[in-house]
Design goal:
The chain is 44% helix and 18% strand. The chain is α+β, with helices and mostly antiparallel strands and 176 residues long. 28% of the residues are buried.
Length: 176
Amino acid sequence: MRVVAAVALAAILAGCVGQPRPADPAVCATLFARYDTAARLYGPSSFDEDTGVVPPAPLSRPGGDLRENGCLTSSADLDGLPALAARLSPHEIASSGPAIRAVPVHLGIVTGYSDEAFVTRYFRGLGYRSRGIGAEGLGRRIYIGPFTSQGALDEALAIAREAGFIAPYAARFTRF
C-alpha cells in the first residue's frame, strides 16, 4: 500500500514540476526594470586576476528571476514571425504623435545567437534598426530603434508584443 501511495504522490509532483507557468507581462516588466538597475549599477562580473576567481555576479539574482518567471523569449515564442512579417509587409514605420527624445525599444532576451539572427532579420525586414548585446548567463538582449515620435514607439511596442516578446519596453537608459 505504501508503494502505491508513493508512486501516486510522485506522479502528482512530477506533473506539477514539469508544467511551465505562463509569463505575466506585468511581472516581467518589473523584473526587467530590476535587471536594468542592477546592470547600470554593477555591470557584468569580471575575473579577479589576483585570486583567479569570478566573484558572484550582481546580475545573477535578477537574471534568475527573469528565467524563473518565464520572461526570456524562446525559439518557440518566435514561431509566428514569418507569418507576421508577411502580413505586415510592406511596412513603413509610423512617425506620428508628439515628438519624443530618441529612445530604443528593448524587445527582450532571446536565448541564443540563432534566435538573435532570426529576430534581427525580421525587424530589419520591417525597416527597423536593431542590435543585440550579451546578457550574461541568459542570452542576447535585443533592441530596435531609436524612435523619435510617440506613434512610432507605440507601433514598435505593439509589433514586438505580436512577435512573441512578453514585455517589450522603452529603454530610457540605453543608447542605441
